[in-house]
UniProtKB/TrEMBL annotation:
It comes from the Bacteria. Residues 96-376 form the Tryptophan synthase beta chain-like PALP domain. InterPro entries: Cysteate_synthase (IPR022401), Ser/Thr_Dehydratase (IPR050147), TrpB-like_PALP (IPR001926), TrpB-like_PALP_sf (IPR036052). This is Cysteic acid synthase. It comes from Kibdelosporangium sp. AK-AA56.
């Protein structure tokens, strides 16, 4: 029997309360689309003298913890701040950086959500089905390997370059690779797998553990700063991490009148679905997901209008969506390595470039306390320090005659065709 859970699940629309079974993703009542959220039983205090993700266990929806799960390192980025014209810039860095005493072995903050989601599952879990553009796949694959949790992970073939680990994956972790596909294709295909018996959709932003795990960035930062920041900056695909950070800030604020951090969500043009929604632009999303530097930011179905979703976070925090192109993101990646001495991922480059533009345009003022979430970094350093093992697909679905498709049903048809033929059996 699972240990008693120290929180309740509450619908952000109707207020219905549920005891968590470790799997629930949606309120069964009939109403507008709405996130479930967590309400915790006790007052929060981070574990003193402890390190790692689960020193924040009082605000994580998990009944089991993993001692080696890392957390971000938060530090004042004086040199980078000077280059941007900011006097109080703080960085929350997630990745591999031994000199800063952090070792996320897949290089991104997606490890925060992976360990929390696995810790929330019931004792005998179904096969967890995860869709990813690369970073989430790597985080879940390695965490599930270390703790032998069955996972089926669907990703486009272009993400396989990120599937390199300190050791081989456990057989309980299976990679389904889609040739000639996009992140949106992987999401659609994962939905099909999740319908199979004894399989369960991980849920993305709908999973309270994913949001609360990513919200640890804000918990770690508030602990380091002794306060909430004025501005929070993050690159986003679905916006899950930014929503989680906002929810964490609300919990930390409690009933006080302390202002919530303004949330600046950053995307990569030419394909920026959240910017398109924020501007209320009619018609299809312009650009192509294949043309951006940071493909992890190309979720074409973000939870924008859901109750408790992106729109509500932007409105409540006074935030906005920013976007920069590939050239600006590349320049920001170079700037970070020059000033901080560590390589960062393209998504983090997008956030840094957007922050630089926000300072130049006056959206962020010189003396505000700014928290920049560097969502991934140190991958090049990791490759120097460790001999990484490339993962092998469990199932590879070939591209159709025209390659990737904008039709979300296309990967499903390809999968059905593949498994229906003797060669795909």
């Amino acid at each position: 029997m699972c240990a008693r859970r120290h929180y309740s699940i509450v619908c952000s629309s109707c207020g219905a309360r549920y005891e968590d079974d470790g799997l629930i993703l949606d309120c069964p009542m009939t109403h507008e689309p709405a996130f479930l959220r967590t309400e915790y039983d006790s007052q929060y205090r981070p574990g003193t003298g402890e390190h790692g993700l689960f020193r924040h266990a009082a605000l994580l929806p998990a009944t089991r913890t993993f001692a080696e799960a890392p957390e971000p390192v938060v530090y004042p980025a004086t040199q980078l701040g000077h280059a941007l014209g900011l006097t109080r810039l703080w960085v929350a860095f997630s990745g591999y950086w031994p000199e800063r005493d952090t070792a996320m072995l897949t290089g991104t903050f997606k490890e925060l959500e992976a360990y929390t989601v696995l810790g929330r599952l019931p004792e005998t879990p179904p096969v967890l089905v995860v869709a990813s553009a690369g970073n989430t796949a790597a985080a879940f694959a390695w965490a599930a390997t270390r703790y032998r949790v069955p996972c089926l992970i669907v990703l486009p073939a272009s993400a396989m370059e990120r599937m390199r680990f300190p050791g081989p994956l456990d057989p309980c972790v299976r990679l389904v690779v889609l040739d000639g596909a996009t992140y949106n294709d992987a999401i659609a295909c994962a939905e099909l797998f999740a319908r199979l018996p004894k399989h369960q959709a991980e849920g993305g932003a709908r999973n309270v553990a994913r949001r609360d795990g990513l919200g640890v960035v804000m918990l770690s930062a508030a602990d380091a700063l002794g306060r909430l920041p004025d501005v929070y900056v993050q690159a986003v695909g679905s916006g899950t991490g930014a929503i989680g950070a906002h929810e964490a800030a609300r919990r930390l604020r409690g009933d006080s009148d302390v202002p919530l951090p303004r949330v600046l969500m950053c995307q990569n043009t030419p394909y920026a679905p959240l910017l398109h929604a924020w501007r209320s632009d009619p018609g299809p999303i312009p650009g192509s997901a294949m043309d951006v530097l940071a493909p992890e930011l190309t979720n074409g179905r973000p939870p924008y209008a859901m109750r408790g979703g992106v729109r509500d976070v932007l409105a409540e925090s006074g935030g906005e969506v920013l976007a920069v192109d590939n050239e600006a993101a590349l320049a920001a990646m170079v700037l970070c390595e020059q000033t901080e001495g560590i390589d960062i991922e393209p998504g983090a480059g997008v956030a840094l470039a957007a922050l630089a533009e926000a300072v130049r345009s006056g959206r962020v003022s010189r003396d505000e306390v700014v928290l920049l979430n560097v969502t991934g970094g140190g991958r090049a350093r990791l490759a120097e320090d460790m001999a990484l093992v490339p993962a092998e697909p469990w199932l590879r679905i070939p591209a159709g005659p025209s390659g990737a498709s904008d039709d979300p049903a296309e990967p499903m048809r390809r999968l059905l065709d593949y498994v229906a033929t003797p060669s795909g059996a």
